[in-house]
Amino acid sequence: MGKLRAAQYACSLLGHALQRHGASPELQKQIRQLEGHLSLGRKLLRLGNSADALESAKRAVHLSDVVLRFCITVSHLNRALYFACDNVLWAGKSGLAPRVDQEKWAQRSFRYYLFSLIMNLSRDAYEIRLLMEQESSACSRRLKSSAGGVPGAIETGGPGGPGTPGGGLPQLALKLRLRVLLLARVLRGHPPLLLDVVRNACDLFIPLDKLGLWRCGPGIVGLCGLVSSILSILTLICPWLRLKP
């Protein structure tokens, strides 16, 4: 499935590149047809995915963390609805239900896909916040132990401190820099979370473009879809890179 998706978005990216470089219309048409066939093949292989997504939602309901339970359950429910709309689209494109309004069902499917991705990114943001809090607490404990309990060794006024006039802006810049460094440290130490953030962020451009909320163009959509597909294949090859639960 991941290979088909990667091939489909590679065709989308290739078609955009050929159009920009003035390739022959016949070649462009062949690439578009190949992309359409790959898309239809993926829809066929996803016929049972709605049931799988519902089962995943039922399992997520039992998570102890309230925020994770909400984000993961709602994400799986939206995925189930997305796959259901996708099945209707497949029936229309394959000729089983020729009267299906494909534009309307495509908009519905991308809307559910977008909601699912928003929930995934919300879950990622929540996990990042928890890990940053844990890392910050650990750093504070290490600083206190290295200071040996000397008063004022951790927090000093110094130039630009709280009591210094004009010290607010430099302090804010320092705090922001420290937060960015802490974020980078957390993501570097948790590859599954980093991959999930990048994959969901790349996927987000697809429904945003298809729904007309943010026109990215076929080149950006193809590139983001290809990157996301490669990361998905990577999590299949290396299961430890898959974010759990």
From TrEMBL:
TM ranges: 220-241
GO CC annotation terms, alphabetical: peroxisomal membrane
Main location: membrane
Top-level taxon of origin: Eukaryota
Subcellular location: Peroxisome membrane
InterPro entries: PEX11
Gene Ontology process terms (BP): peroxisome fission
Keywords: Membrane, Peroxisome, Peroxisome biogenesis, Transmembrane, Transmembrane helix
Name assigned to this protein: Peroxisomal biosis factor 11 beta
Gene this chain is encoded by: PEX11B
